[in-house]
Amino acid sequence: MALKHSYTLLAPIYDHVVSGPMDIWRQKSLARLKDTQDKKILINGIGSGLDIPHLPGDGIYTGTDITPAMLKRAEQRARQTSLNIDLQIADSHALPFADNSFDAVVMHLILAVVPRPEQALQEACRVLSPGGSIYLFDKFIRPGQLAISRRLLSILIRHIATRTDVVFEDVLASCPQLQVIHDEPALAKGWFRLIELRKVTS
After folding, report:
1. 35: which residues sit within 8 A by CB, 6+ positions away?
2. Is 148 inside any structural domain?
3. 3-state secondary structure string, 110-150?
4. In terms of residue numbers, what domain contains 94?
5. Distance CA 17, CA 10 (A)
6. 156-182 pLDDT, tens per residue?
7. CATH assignment at residue 84
8. Domain for residue 89, yes or no?
9. What is the CA radius of gyration of the chain?
10. What angle is formed at CA 27 by the lines to CA 51 and CA 40, rounded to 5 degrees?
11. Residue 163 lies in a domain
């Protein structure tokens, strides 16, 4: 089953699954957005819009997701705020934006969901301006970590919900323009991590 279709089915219960203990880490991740006035910020994989209530009010936001049912829920959240935010359907593997379009990119619980995380990170890097940052909150296994149960689980659920076998360092290796600025363990004994990347000037 394609993720677009599976997340259409998951949309009514998605918030109950990924909120709760994750909310504090979502807020902590978004608190890293500084000096956002008139800055263009992409929320890549905005889902049902759980990030929206925690976004600084002075940025210019674009939120994308591949699933219309999820975007409908994000639109409902956006209407409850005064944010300058445009929501549109887009595939993280092929973003419909020009190079260097955004000052920052937020990717929460998306890089370890998409079928091709390397391509998704490459696209985020492409649309990010030099000197800009990518803010990640997601689950990654460490290089060399056996994580047998997580790897086996990924075989079962990767096509309907999420992947549990993504090694971040392998994904990052596909984007030489990105440097790790911050890497902090979060939930599940460090399985979930808060990561900040910066696009270096060429």
Report:
1. none
2. no
3. CCCCCCCHHHHHHHHHHHEEEEEEEEEEEECECCCCCCHHH
4. 3-138+168-199
5. 9
6. 445 445 666 889 999 999 999 999 999
7. 3.40.50.150
8. yes
9. 16
10. 55
11. no
If we measure between CA atoms, which residue out of 153, 201, 147, 146 comes closest to residue 178?
A: 201
Residues 6+ apart with CB under 8 A from 51: 26, 30, 43, 106, 108
Structure tokens at 69: 């049912």
Is the residue at 152 inside a domain? no
Q: Is 197 helix (H, G, I), strand (E, B) or coil?
A: strand
Q: What's the pLDDT tens digit per position in 18-67? A: 667 778 888 999 999 989 999 999 999 999 999 999 999 999 999 999 98
β-pair partners for 42: 62, 105
State the total domains in the chain: 1
DSSP H helices in the chain: 3-18, 23-30, 68-78, 117-127, 148-157, 168-172, 187-190
Overall residue count recorded for the chain in this entry: 202
